[in-house]
Amino acid sequence: MATVVAQSHFIFGLRTGVRNNLCFVDEQTVVFPGGNSCVCFNTVQRCQRFIPGSENSQGMHALTISANRRYLAVAECGGNATVTVFDLQHEQGRKRKVLTAGDMLVQEFVCVAFSPDSKYLIGQTGGPDGTLVFWLWEKQKVLATVKTGNSVTQVSFSPHDNTRLCVSGSGVFKLLRYSEGALKQSRSAKVEAVNFLCHAWVTEERVIAGTDAGRLLVFESGNLRREIDVATEAAQCDIRPVEMKKITDAGVGEGPRITAILPNSKGFACSLGPGTVCLFEKIEEDGYRRSREIRIPADPCSNELTSAECQEIHTMCISPAEETLAVSTDRGQLYSFSLSSVKLNKEEHFEFLSQSFHSQSITGLSVCIRKPLVATSSLDHSVRIWNYETKLLELYKEFQEEAHSVALHPTGLFILVGFSDKLRLMNLLIDDIRTIKEFTVRCCRECAFSHGGHMFAADNGNVIHLYSVTSFENILNLKGHNGKVRGIEWSLDDTRLVSCGMDGAVYEWNTQTGKRESESVLKSCSYTDVAFSSDCRTMLAVGTDLTLKEIQDCQVLREVPADDVAHTAVAVSHSGRVVFTGTSSGTVRAIKYPLPIQKEWITYQAHCGPVTKMVTTFDDQFLLTVSEDGCLLMWKVIDKEGRGLKSNRQIIHTEEILITKSDLEEKSQNMLELKMRLNELQMENEYQLRLKDMNYKEKMKELSDKFTQQIESLNTMLQAMKAEMDKQAGEHQESCAEATVKHSMELKDLEVSYSQKLIVEYERNQDLQHESQRMQEDYEKQLRAAEESKIQSLEQLTQLSEAKLQEKTQLLGQCQEDAQQQVREFKEMMRQVEEDEESKIHDIQIHYEQKLHTEKETITNLKGETGVMTQKFHSLQRQVDDRCTDIKQLKQERQRLLGLVRSLKSDIEDLKRQMSGHEKTNQDKDQTISSSKKKNQELEKLKFVLDFQFSELKKQTETQQDQINEKKEHIHQLEEQLLLTDKSNTQLTLSVSELGLRLRTRNQEMHKEMLKVKDLETHLQRLKSDLHECVSFIQDPRKLKESVQTIYARYVPLTDEVKRSSADKDVQRTVGRDHQEKTVNGLRTRLARSAEEHERAYVKIMREKGTLITEINELRKELHMARTQLRDQTAQLAALNRSDRFL
C-alpha cells in the first residue's frame, strides 16, 4: 500500500438536493452535507470534522438530528437504500446502526425524522409505492410500516408524544398514531388539490403547514381550523376561517412559496418567498404577530442584481439557545442571522455562515507558487480565489459568460480565464479582478502558465496556442490532435509541454521549436487528464479505458487497471512518492509511485459527482480536488505516522498585492475623510457625555432625596406592623389551646362510633362467607352432573357416526365398481364409432371427386369471362382517356367512371384470390383422393348401404347446378347491357366532337366580328379628328362648308353600307345562335340521359355481383354441411360394421 495518505481537511461547498441539509449540533457547530460526507463545521474556530458516507453509496437524500443533538441519521441510496445513525459525541462520528426497510427493496428514503426522546426513527421511501417505516433504531427493528403514496416530502414526530406522526406532501396531509404494533391514520381533512411543501408542530395538537401557493394553514387534531394571512404586513396577521369540508388552492392567488417552517419558543419562522424569512410571535391563544423580516442581501460581486435575492430557502435551523438562525438555499449557500441582535434598521439581512460557495459544476482549478492561493472557475459564471491556509474566500467575481478554465500566474498576481467567446488575462487586485488583455481563443477548456511565468498555453479545439505574457504575442501553434484537448501541463524547466485529447493521443511538445518529441496514440481510449512525473521523465495519463498509464518515449511502461470506475483526473506529488487520481464516482485514490503491478491503492470518499480537476500544492502539504457537485475539497497529505511530507523546495509566501493608483488615491482620500469624521464624532461624543453626566448627577440627587423619605416612612410602618404582629400572636395561642381541647373530645366520640360499626360489619362478613361456601358446593354438584351427561352423549354420538361410516364405505365401493364398468363400456363404444366414421368419410370423399371436377370446369369458365371483362375494361379506360383530353367540362363524370373501374379491379383481384384458393384446395383434395383410393377395396362392401344417400346428394347437386346455370345466363345479360352502354358512350363522343367543331366555327365568326368592330372604331377616330379640324374653320363659313361636305362625302355612304351589312349579319347571327343553342341543349339532355343509364347499368352489375357472392358463400356453407353429414354417416356406418362383427 502507499506510504502516503490523504486526510480530509476542509471543504468549500454545500451539497444541494438533500432534505434538511443543515442542522445545529451546539451553539457553535453545524452539520451539513458536502461532497459525499457530512461536515461538522465549527463557526468560531473555523475547523471541520468529516463523517464519510458508505462505500457503496450513490448519494445522500436526507439528514436529521435527534432532539438531544447527539445522533445524526443519514439516508443514502444504492442497491438497497439505508439509513445510517452516527454518534456525534464520538470524535470520528462513530457509526452506531445501519437501518433498512426489512424485506422490502427500497431505492431511496426521501425524508427521515427522530422521535423527541431519540428512541424511534421514521423514514419515508420513494418510488410509486411510498411507504412510511417506523424503527426502534437501537435494536434495528422495524415496528410498523404503512403506505402513504409517492408524493410525501416531509415526515415528523410530535414534540410531546412519541406515538404521533405527521406526513405531508402534494395532496397529502395525514396524522398517524402508533398503537398495537401498527400505524393508524386519525381524522384528517381532504387536501387532494393542495401541494404542501413543509409543516411544523407548534403545540401538542397544532400543526402549521405551508403550501406552494403561499398559504399558511393551521391544523388542530388533524382538522383545519384557520389560515394565517401572510400577505398583510401589519403588526397583527389576519386569521381567516377556512371551510372544513375540502381544502383547495382554486381561487387563491399565486403567493410566495413557503418552503420551510421552523418552530421556536416564541412562535415560528417561515420562508416567505425567495430570499425572505419572517418571524411570527404568539400573542394570544390562537393569534400570531409578524415581528421581523430578514432578507438575503444582494451580492455586490454579481452582475445580476437579483440573483442572490431570488434564492429559494430550502432548510432552516435554530441553535439550542435560540440565538442564531441558519438557512440553506437552492444555490448551495449557507446564511446565518443573530436573533439576539437589537433591531436597529427596518431591513435586516442575513450574513454568510462561512463564505460564498460555487452553485454549479467547477470546471477549472489552479494554484500558484508565491502565495497560498487557489483559483476555481465554474459554470455559475464566477471565478473565486481561495486561501488554503486561512480557509477563507479572498476574492471572487461573477461574469456574463460561463468560465470553462482558469490558471494562476506563479506570482499569484495574475489570472488567466477561458470563456466561451474569448480568453482573458486579468489582474488580481485588492478587491477586484480586472481584465488586462483579451485573446481571440474561443471555448478554451484548458490553459496553464509556465513555471517561470513568461508564457502560457491555451487550447482552441484541437490546437494549442503558446503566448508570451510580456508581449502578448502568439509564439507557437501546436497542431496534431484530431479531437478536443483535455489536458495540458508544463515541465519544470518549461522546455516541454505534454497534452492529451479525446482522440486517444498523448503528445510531448518542444516549446522552443513546436515539434513533437514523443507520442502515444490509443484510439480506443479518450484521455481526460495527463501529468508529468516528479522528475519529468515519464508521463501519467488517465482516460475512458479504466486504466492509469505511465508513458515514456512513445511506449506505455506500466498500466494500473481500475475496477469498474473510470479515472477522470490525475495529480503527482512533487516529492514523487504518490500519485492521486480522481474517479467518475467522486472517490479519490492514492497510489504509490513507482506504480505497482497489482491493484494497490487507498480509496477515499470525496465527492458526489465526477472529479473534474485535482492538483497538489507546491510544498506537498495539500491536495485540492474539485467536482461537478460544485465543491472544493482540501486534503492534508501526510505519511502514516501523521507527519507532513518534507519538500526539497523552500517556498516563501509573499504578501504583496496589486492595487491601481486611482483606487489607492481614492482609499487614502476616504481614510482622511474618515479620520476627520472620527475626530468630529469624538468631540461630539465628549460633549454629549458631559451633558449626560450633569443630567445623571441631578437625577441621582433627586432619587436619593426621594429614597430617604421612603425609607423613613417604611421604618415607621415596620414598627407599627411589629406591634400588631405581637398582638395577633397572643390571640393565636389562645385560639390554638381551645381548638386542641375541642379536637380531643371529637376524637373520643369518633372512636366509640367506629368500634360499634366494625363489630356490625364483621358479623355481616361471617354470614356472607357461609353463604359463599354453600353456593360453591352446589356449583360443584352441578358440574359433576353436567360432565356425566356429556360423556354419555359423546358415546352415543360415536356409535351412530361409526355405523353411518360403514354404510357410506359400502356405498362408495359399489359406486366405484359401477363407474369402472361404465368407463369400459364407453371406451368400447367410442372405438366402434371411430371405425364407422372412417368408412363413411372415405365413401363421401369418392362422391365429391366428381363434384370437384365440375367445379374446376366452372372455374375455367369464370377465368375466361374475367379475361373478357379485363379487355373490355381496358377499352373503356382508353375511351375515357380520349374523352378527357378533348372535353374539360366532363372531368367529374370521368372521375366517377375511374372510381367504378377501380372497384371492378378490386373485385377481379378478389376473384383471382378465390380462384387461387380453390386451386390450393383442389391440390389438397387430389392428395386426399390418392390416399382414399387405397382404401376403396376395403369399403366396397358398404357401397350398397350408401347408394340411397348418394341419390339424395345427387338431387341436391342437380339443384345447385341449375342455380349455377341461371347465374351464367344472368352474367350474359349483364355483358349485353355493358355493350349497349359502350355504344351509347361512342355516340356521345361523336356528338361532343360535333359540338366542338361548331364551337370552333362560332369562335372564328366572333373573331371576324371583333375585327369589324375594330375597323369601325378606327373610322370613328378619323371622323373625330376631321371634325376637330373642321372646328378650327368656325369663323370662316366657306371653308367650314367645304370641310363639312368633304366629311359627308367621305363617311356617309360608308356608314349606310356598314349598317345594312351589320343588320343582315346580326339577323344571321341570331338565327345561327338559336339553332346552335337548341342543338347544344339537346346534346346536353342526351348526355345526361346516357350518363344516368350508364350509372344504372353499373349499379345493377354491382348488385348482381353482390348477390352472386352471397350465393357462392351459401353454396360453400351447404358444401360444408354436406361434408359434416358425410362424416356423420361414415361414423354411423363404422358403428354398424362393428355391431355386425360382434354379431
TrEMBL record:
The keyword Ligase does not apply. It comes from the Eukaryota. Residues 913-933 are annotated as: Disordered. The keyword Coiled coil applies. Keywords: Coiled coil, Repeat, WD repeat. Residues 363-637 form the EML-like second beta-propeller domain. WD repeats lie at residues 355-390, 478-519, 604-637. Residues 661-731, 765-839 form a coiled coil. This is EML-like second beta-propeller domain-containing protein. It comes from Zoarces viviparus.
